Amino acid sequence: MSAVIQLHAPNQPTMVHNMVVASPAMRSLLSTAERVAQSSLPILLRGAAGTGKELLARAIHKWSKRANAPFQKIHCATITSPVELLGAVGGAVPGIERSRSGKFALAEGGTLYLDEVGDLSMALQAQLLRVLEDRSYMPVGAGKARWADIRLIAGSRHSLEQLVQQGKLRDDLMYRIQVLPLELPELVLRDGGVHALAMHFIDKNNRRDERQIEGISDAVLDLFNRYRWPANIRELQNVIEYAFAVGDGAELTIDELPSTFSKDSEQTLSTQPSGLTLDQLDRRRLLSALSQSGGRRSEAAEILGVSRTTLWRKLRHHNLLSQSA
User: Fold this and answer.
1) What is the fold of 3-185?
2) Is residue 140 within 8 Å of residue 93, measured between CB atoms?
3) What whole-number distance in Å separates Cα of residue 136 and Cα of residue 149?
4) How much is the mean pLDDT over the chain?
5) Where is pLDDT greater, at 155 or 24?
6) Does 5 have pLDDT greater than 50?
């Protein structure tokens, strides 16, 4: 029986390998992930930025028979040399005098997580395809191939079909790595998940901050549930940390949120520019209020609908104190 279902009631938020699980969609996803973890087939994790793809990859590793072996992560966009993936024999590459292990060797017996697999160069995609097809790889300068005993998990915020159409991903590699696809829901689609996640991040901050928040006001919860969260869980975490920095008291209230939430919320939430985070929007609104008020904090606070104390904390957070008086 699934550990997620066995240990916790259906509507009770809980932690599963550092993931807060509260919505039916996430419970269903983790139940499936726990089952496929027992397979040796490649897994594709598809989800927008901030949905927790790496956390899920680590959970799958811990559920698998490879749990006691290494978990290695590759930032595919940052790999510029095949040595980082394949390793190299000493002296085979200028500047490398001793043999160097690549990610394939470092993940031996365990799991290799490819973060944004579509960012791999075509040359490295060919090497990855060889590992998937032949279970072997050739370190740079080596005379013979080496066995690759690894489980591959790939993460992508884009559909692989789209990446193939754009010429960024080999189609034969696509078919190899999406044998077991898992879709991570965006935060806005996780029914009941926003409140549970917010309380989780509040609890984390309560443990390390002098301020102790005991609850969230109904007005804040309403705004949280209507906001689209373009950066997903990562953005919600930033909002909670922001509230701890600028506010006080035992309840999280609207005037402690980024300015995006604090005034004209219906209009702001419905016209939010695509791709901007709350922190970026908050800074933009602060600058606008300062411009309208001629840099006078009392007038800027009135424009934003917050107290002067809260405004001062927001300005400090965004390093804008020098632009006001």
Assistant:
1) Rossmann fold (3.40.50)
2) yes
3) 8
4) 83
5) 155
6) no
Give the list of residues 6+ apart from residue 316 with CB closer than 8 angstroms, or none: none
pLDDT of residue 319: 83
Phi-psi label, residue 116: left if phi above 0, alpha if psi -120 to 50, beta otherwise: left
If one compares 238 and 15, the residue with the highest pLDDT of the two is 238
Q: Would you give the distance in Å from CA 311 to the centre of its chain?
A: 29
Question: Is there a contact between 21 and 30 (Cβ–Cβ < 8 Å)?
Answer: yes
The pair of structure tokens assigned to 261 is 């939430």
Cα(257)–Cα(108) distance, integer angstroms: 46
Would you state the structure tokens that stand for residue 259, as one six-digit string? 């300015």
**Which residue in this structure is represented by tokens 């259906």?**
10
Q: Are 22 and 49 in contact (CB under 8 A)?
A: no
Interaxial angle between packed helices 24-36 and 53-63, expressed in degrees from 0 to 180 and rounded to the nearest 10: 40
- Please state the domain extents for the chain: 3-185, 189-323
Structure tokens at 252: 């999280």
Q: Look up tokens 């489980």; give the residue.
A: 151
The answer to whether the predicted template modeling score (pTM) of the entire model surpasses 0.85 is no
Token readout for 164 is 């193939």
Q: Quick check: 225 pLDDT over 60?
A: yes
Of 86, 43, 91, the C-alpha closest to 64 is 43
**What's the first-to-final CA gap in the chain, in angstroms?**
62
3-state secondary structure 113-171: EEECHHHCCHHHHHHHHHHHHHCEECCECCCCCEECCCEEEEEECCCHHHHHHCCCCCH
Residue 114 sits at φ, ψ, to 5 deg, of -100, 105
Which fold does the domain 189-323 belong to in CATH?
Answer: Helicase, Ruva Protein; domain 3 (1.10.8)
Angle formed at CA 128 by CA 122 and CA 129, multiple of 5 degrees = 90
DSSP H stretches of helix in the chain? 3-7, 24-36, 53-63, 82-86, 103-106, 122-134, 160-165, 171-177, 193-206, 218-226, 232-246, 259-262, 265-270, 278-293, 297-304, 308-317
Q: For the segment 293-302, what is each residue's pLDDT rounded down to a tens digit?
A: 778 888 887 7
